[in-house]
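FYI - complex with iron/sulfur cluster, inputs then prediction.
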Amino acid sequence: MASTPDLSTRNEVRPPLHDIYGRRLHYLRISLTDVCNLRCVYCMPEDTRFRPRHELMSDEELLTIVRMMADLGIDKIRLTGGEPTVRPNIVELVRAMAHTPGIRDLAMTTNAILLAQLAEPLARAGLQRVNISLDTLDPVKFKQITRWGDLDTVWAGVEAAEAAGLRPIKLNVVVTRGFNDDEVVEMARLSLLHPWQIRFIELMPFASEADFARSSVVTSDETKQHIQEVLGPLQPIPGYDGRDPAAPFRLAGAPGSLGFISTISEPFCAGCNRLRLTADGKLRLCLLRDGEFDVLGRLREDVDPEILKQQILEAAFHKPWGNGLADGEVPQLRLMSQIGG
Ligand code: SAM
Ligand code: SF4
C-alpha cells in the first residue's frame, strides 16, 4: 500500500474539492449506466441483472449534479460505465456537459462496439478523446474474453474515432493470466505502427469477481519484462507530470507510446485527483474502497443546492488514502461495471 503522507502540514483553509491530504480533486469519472453490450469475464457475470431505471440518475438529475460539481472545481470529466454509448441520449448528454461552464476536458472510456455510428456525432457534440478497451488482437480470444463481442466491430470503432478526430487514441488492455498475457508483446507492437497509447492495466478484484481477479492478475513489472525481452528497452517519455496513473514509455522509433497502470502492485494514491459518480448517483471516493456519498438521494429529498454542495465538499474531504487489498479488504458493494472504471 502507498505510504500515508504527514498531515501536520495540511492547509486549514480549504479551496473547493480538496481532501484531508491536500490532494486537489478536479477530475470526475461518471458511470452513465451499469448496462453493457458485452460481458467481459473479469468484469461481470454473464447473467448480470442491471438496476431498474428509476434508481438511476435521469438526464436532468445527472446534468444538475455535473453543474454542481463544476461549481466546486471539477474541470475534467470522463464518461464510462457499464458501456456509456448504450445510454439513451448520449450525444445530447455529451453536448450539455461540453457546454457546462468550467468543464474544459471531456473524454470517454468505451468498448467501441457502437463507435462506428457514434464517433462522429459525439465528436461534433464536444467529446474530445476516447480510451478504447481492447484486450486481444485475436477474434476467437476476443469472443472468449467478452463472451460475445466481435473484434471487427471494435476495429471499425477505432477507425471511426480516429477519423472523427477523437485523439490521441488510448487502448486499455487488462492483462489477464491465461487469456491474453501471451499477447502483450503483440499489443505493445501496435505502438510501433500507430500514434496510439497502449495502456496495460493490472486486474483488480471486485465483489463476486474478486477470486478470479486475484488468481489471474499479472503485474506491470511482468508485462514490461515480456515486452522488453522481445521489443527492446522502454524509454521513459520526458515531461510526465505525475497526474496520469500511467507514466508513458516509448519503444525506439515508435510513433505511439506505452503505459502501465499498476493499481495492485504500485497504488497511485499520491497523484489521485479523481472522484467517481455512479449511475445511481453515489459519489464514490475511491475505486477500491466502498465509501460513498448519496448525492442523488439528497437531490431527490430537495436538499438546498448550496447545502448539498457543502455536503459534497465535506464527503470529498474525507477521500481515503490507500486501498485495503493487502489486508484482504476487497470492495464488496459493486463490480467495476457498476462503479465506472
Ligand atoms: N465498457 C467500457 C469499456 O470497457 O471500456 C467502460 C467501462 S469498463 C468498466 C472501464 C475499464 O475498466 C475497461 O478498460 C475495462 O477493461 C476495465 N476493467 C473492468 N473490470 C476490471 C477489473 N476487474 N480490473 C481492472 N480493469 C477492469
Ligand atoms: Fe462491459 Fe466494459 Fe465491463 Fe467489458 S469491461 S463487460 S465492455 S463494462
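The longest strand covers residues 105-110. The domain at 27-338 is CATH 3.20.20.70 (TIM Barrel).
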